[in-house]
Amino acid sequence: MEFPLVTAVMLMTPVVLYKRRFFYCISHALRVAFLLEKVMNKILLLALAGAFGTLLRYWLSVAMHSLLGPGFPWGTWTVNILGCFLFGLIWIMIQERGILPAHLRIIVLVGFMGAFTTFSTYIFECSALVQDTQWLKLGLNLLGQNILGFFALYLGFILGRLF
Questions:
Q1: Are 65 and 75 in contact (CB under 8 A)?
Q2: Any transmembrane segments, and where (predicted)?
Q3: Where are the chain's structural domains?
Q4: pLDDT digits (tens, 9 = 90+) for 63-89
């Protein structure tokens, strides 16, 4: 007995649909894996850059303390000033000169510089307010972060001692 063509197609449809769904699932899984790999690579690079920034900050602070003594926080001072210089240099190299690829901006400025010093970001944001002639906002940022930061530190000390 011969099956008509319609019957054959009807019998094959579940297999074809199953194979299509299987290949769709594989294709989708590969796309998700590729995106995860890209995200994980960026996260890994951020973490490595952060680790390097942390280690350099520690090494430089210890070196300055050894060279100049413990009477003044030379390590922090050096890291903050050097961090501002490096932030400015890296920003220009990426944004204006194109010497470094743009995708490195987050890795270097957030990963490395974020671990090395956040003071450089603070100063960079202040310079943006200067460029935009936002003098009131500049004053609020400079005084606010420094004065409120100082008070917040001591509030943390007080609350930490209460518990």
A1: yes
A2: 43-60, 72-94, 106-130, 142-160
A3: 5-132
A4: 998 999 888 888 888 898 888 898 888
117 annotated ligand-binding residue:
yes
Is the pTM here over 0.90, yes or no? no
133 is in an annotated binding site: no
Count Cβ neighbours within 10 Å for each residue of 39-77 and write b for 16 or more, e otherwise: eeeeeebbeebbeebeebbeebbeebbeeeeeeeebbbe
What is the residue-wise DSSP string for 131-147?
HTT-HHHHHHHHHIIII
- Residue 115 one-letter amino acid: A
Q: Determine the Cα–Cα distance for residues 71 and 67; give it in Å rounded to an integer.
A: 11
